[in-house]
Amino acid sequence: MATETRQRQADRSRETRRKLMEATVDCLVELGWSGTTTTVVAERAGVSRGAQLHHFRTRGELVAAAVEHLGAESVQHLRDRAREAGSTTVAVVGLIADFYASDLFTAALELWVAARTDPDLRTVVVPLETRLGRETHRLAVELLDADEGEPGVREAVQITLDLVRGLALANQLTDDRRRRERIVRHWARMLETALGRAR
After folding, report:
1. What is the pTM of this model?
2. How far is Cα 189 from Cα 197, in angstroms, rounded to an integer?
3. 199: part of which helix (H) or strand (E)?
4. What's the pLDDT tens digit per position in 129-152?
5. CA dist list (Å): 18 to 76, 84, 139
6. CA 125 distance to own-chain centroid
7. CA-based, 20 to 30 A from 83: which of 21, 41, 124, 141?
């Protein structure tokens, strides 16, 4: 009986955290950093302020956990989509570009901009950005089937990630999808050469 009670409490606790993290990302995308207060997040998640404080003591902790959670989910989603879309270079670069044009990037961008002038937030955001950056790089290498032991390949993968981040920035104010698709196709041809696959 006690074990079942503890299990139900653990399930409720996980569900509360999940609701808070999803509400946080929604708020970051819709309201920006300044509008993403812990009170607004708790209301949107449908949990009490006390429950929110039990899980996350500060707004910085809450937001960083939310972005990291969504990042992990998004990376898995990207893996799943890559299996469906095929492994051509243009398909993989397109998927990575779409990944960066998602709400995850918008939420993370809000966090990065705020962290630039908030030292407390920066201590939370820098390690988070490093982990997400490493994971995304590893995933890109895997999806592109790239051999980083070959000269220039590691740099080509990193250029790909930097390029799609830049394209995602351009997409923040207007729908830049058509231009992004053209650039992705062009870059994929250049990347084929860098990966040693040019015909």
Report:
1. 0.78
2. 9
3. none
4. 888 888 889 989 988 999 999 999
5. 16, 27, 24
6. 13
7. 21
